[in-house]
Amino acid sequence: MEQKLLIDWEKPDFQEETGEYFENQFTKEWLQEKGIVFKTEQELIEAFSTGSLETITQEQLKKSENITHKTEDFEAELANREYKESFESMETNLVNEGEITLPAPIILYIKNTYYGFAGNRRMNLAFKYGLPLKAWIVRI
Prior knowledge:
Layout: E1 6-10, H1 14-17, H2 19-22, H3 25-33, H4 41-48, E2 52-56, E3 64-65, H5 71-77, H6 81-97, E4 99-103, E5 106-110, E6 113-118, H7 120-128, E7 133-139
Parallel strand pairs: 1-4, 3-6, 5-7
Antiparallel strand pairs: 2-7, 5-6
């Protein structure tokens, strides 16, 4: 009998994810091109608190930016040792335990485009095993 796997998605800790903006020049510039600038961590946290946990499909994310949704593209990212170890740790826990709880990826929805802000490894874990994905969607 095949083991059923499950990821319980929970609201992410926005404080833990602020580095994805303040330490990531690509994200800062991408958002700035859209007219979005966060001056402080508190400003970012307040904006993200308006989001909600929503089910989203891989198909919906096909035309997105900064989201790896093809297995072969994601595997290329695993060349980074630290990134790979983090992913494999989550994967091992999922397979061994059958169920894990993870913070939902944060996805921004801006001008009809999804933008992966944080949680690409978590998202790709769900994709790899064909599991439902819930993400924290922030409409800006």
